[in-house]
Design goal:
Blueprint lengths: L30 H5 L2 H4 L4 H20 L5 E7 L3 E6 L16 H7 L22 H7 L1 E10 L2 E8 L2 E2 L4 E5 L6 E8 L11 H14 L4 E6 L6 E6 L4 H8 L11 E7 L2 E9 L6 E6 L2 E2 L5 H21 L11 H5 L2 E8 L16 H21 L1 H34 L20 E6 L1 H10 L5 E6 L11 H4 L3 H10 L17 E5 L4 H17 L1 H5 L3 E4 L4 E5 L2 E5 L2 H11 L5 E4 L8 H9 L6 E3 L5 H12 L3 H11 L11
Parallel strand pairs: 1-8, 12-14, 15-16, 15-17, 17-18
Antiparallel strand pairs: 1-2, 2-7, 3-4, 3-7, 4-5, 4-6, 8-9, 10-11, 11-14, 12-13, 18-22, 19-20, 19-21
Helix pairs in contact: 3-5, 3-6, 8-10, 12-18
Length: 652
Amino acid sequence: MTDHAKQENGGAASAAGEYTAQGIQVLKGLEAVRKRPAMYIGDTGVRGLHHLVYEVVDNSIDEAMAGYCDTIEVVIGEGDIITVVDNGRGIPVDMHKTEGKPALEVVLTSLHAGGKFDHGSYKVSGGLHGVGVSCVNALSEWLRAEVRRNGKIYTMEFERGVKTGEMRETGTCPPGQTGTTISFKADPEIFPERVYAYDTLRSRLRELAFLNKGIKITLRDVRGEQERQDSFHFEGGIVEYVRWLNENRSVICTEPIYFSGEKDAVQVEIAMDYNDGYSEALFTFANNINTTEGGSHLSGFRAGLTRTLNAYANASGLMKKDMKGLSGDDVREGLTAIIAVRIPEPQFEGQTKTKLGNTEVKGQVEALVNTHLAQYLDEHPREAKKIIAKCVAAAQGREAARRARDLTRRKSALDSAALPGKLADCSSRDPAECEIYLVEGDSAGGSAKQGRDRRFQAILPLKGKILNVEKARLDRMLGNDEIKTIITALGTGVGTGIFDIAKLRYHKVIIMTDADVDGSHIRTLILTLFFRHFREVIENGYMFIAEPPLYRLKKGKVEVYAHSDEDKDRILAEMGEKGVYVQRYKGLGEMNPEQLWETTMNPDSRTMTRVTIDDAAEADHIFTTLMGDEVEPRRRFIEENAAEIDLAKLDI
């Protein structure tokens, strides 16, 4: 959502580019926000907390898209106080003619108040709900707004959405200096957790800088003794975004393919390139909003891409004679692309705005791809030949994968026990209560089978390290025995048009490996498999990492388990170090079935980490770095991050 415009920049006027109080339109009621905050910001957990920052920043971005702002700074201060500073026009401070209040107050205290409803101020903005900054105000213990406008500084303060005094002049500034500073502290009555994650904010701000070329966005964290800071400024915009996503891959084109166009006030920008990998990385945006569920712009891009590459392959004689044509999957293998559209009247499905619904956009994007990609292929025959060759190889691999799947199905049909022989399944058939443990090694698998609750816990022991799917096409993946057993056990199938999350047999898929280097590697290989081929399992919150203890401490009849060295030291201090027997578990196999149940599998006492994907682009980048063919980026990543990363708790 956005509102330095929608609200932060609250005003609009009849004359284009003029920005006054007269353009603000109002629909009232802030109390509803405090009563039902999740309706407005998604939830009141960590995600909703960070959403408060995005609301304020998006307003500054709207000023930037309108051409009035080029610098934004976000500061995380002591006590997790957020300050956002921009050099836009500043929220209007003159009196609103119908409300009888300064526009600044209207913007910060009224839902659906802002310049987004009047296209004189903003041709394009991140959203039209108009609830952003007023929501932040309502959900903050306190908020302070400072506006630099007309050579003066105006200030107004609020507590939980209610003003604590009138707007006042608090100083002067150079006549040409304009902008807005919003500082706020999230309300403890609304948010149980109020600690901001630097990396989460950094990912979103970097994304915004990529999508809005030329803007400089700085993030500073002044909490604690050591300050952290990142600045993002990309003159190449989404071209640099594609380059960053592909930086650890070998690419086909010397420079990413880029084209843009505008029709009926809809602006479209596309940047794309192919790499030597086997997965696609397509990210779509509408008015800077990450449309994770795609929509009409994604449909248009896919249709245009498939049609254009098929036409070129046929016309140039590069299509194999026995092939019927290239499918959508074939032309997207190894493709990295950013599709960004800007629309005056966006129609999103739901308040979360994760899918674009404007039907007219599909045809506009498709036509743009047809024209400009065809032109690129004609003008770059060397790259075109490589792209088609990759697509043809993907088609051949797809056919091989189909044959492998058919063979597996035939075997299953003839086999009375279609599930893998080494799977110890549970008796329940309700996926909501069933869980499967993917266990490293037969020894630990044996203990897990004996210690489990057979009613709802299934055990699948895995032998050795599974195939690194980052470096393998689907047909080769289906030839790996361990991966085949995982696919069969899950029941969803694999591949476009086949995978069905509704057929997942377990709503908890738990990775249980040793707490050593080999265990971390196996865990990363399994996570790579799920991220690339079963992502919906992660997105639905069905994937977990078991956290077995590292130590068992025993003194007399008292037995305690520790999950870390710090845990162990604390427990030792409490028990008194004399007479304490300390056992360091080298692997899961060292635990007897009762211990494994008690520490790692009993729902009443176990510790597990849910695997999440908060930022798909960042996750894609990390997986490519850690699991791809390029050694140098991996070495550099390990050198730079080894001190801070605990592979056992990587939350991807």
